[in-house]
Amino acid sequence: FGSRLSTARAGSPRFPAHSPVGASPVLKAMPSKRRNNGRSKHGRGHTAIVRCCNCSRCVPKDKAIKRFQVRNMVDASSQRDLRDASVYSTFVLPKLYMKMLYCVSCAIHGRVVRVRNKVLRASPEGRIYVRPGKGKGKGGGK
């Protein structure tokens, strides 16, 4: 099987049949889009797999986009009812902290992260994420 494969490749533009004696092909490094290749795996060979909370895609744990979602345990109207019925005047309802893990596709689609140009990706200012406020975005809305 191996000999058949090599003869089929020989003579094609990508695999020349013969090369000059002593000449070796020069291998150039592929350009890298990001300094960390989109991961924070430095020195580790393998990392655990997590599931995207939106589409359930398997994503390496170091590549997943992680965000904490802080919510009230009850909605505003129920919170008001509880506050009126409560004996304690200063009781604060606990909040719900959920760690959301997104794959890159869902994070971009759901506007968790934005696409940035090359200059912003490289600069320290581009790494600081400023969440857009309500009604202050580019789009006019409906």
Describe this structure in words.
With 142 residues, this protein is α+β, with helices and mostly antiparallel strands. It has helices at residues 2-9, 76-85, 104-109, 118-122, 124-127; strands at residues 49-51, 58-60, 65-72, 95-102. The strands form two sheets. It has a two-stranded antiparallel ribbon with strand order 1-2. Strands 3-4 form a two-stranded antiparallel sheet. A hairpin with a 6-residue loop joins β1 and β2. The termini are far apart. The model has no long low-confidence stretch (mean pLDDT 82).
Task: Report a brief summary of the structure.
23% of the residues lie in helices and 15% in strands. 4% of the residues are buried.
For the structure shown, list the relevant keywords.
142 residues; alpha+beta; two-stranded antiparallel ribbon; 5 helices; 4 strands; elongated
Summarize the SSE layout with pairings.
Layout: H1 2-9, E1 49-51, E2 58-60, E3 65-72, H2 76-85, E4 95-102, H3 104-109, H4 118-122, H5 124-127
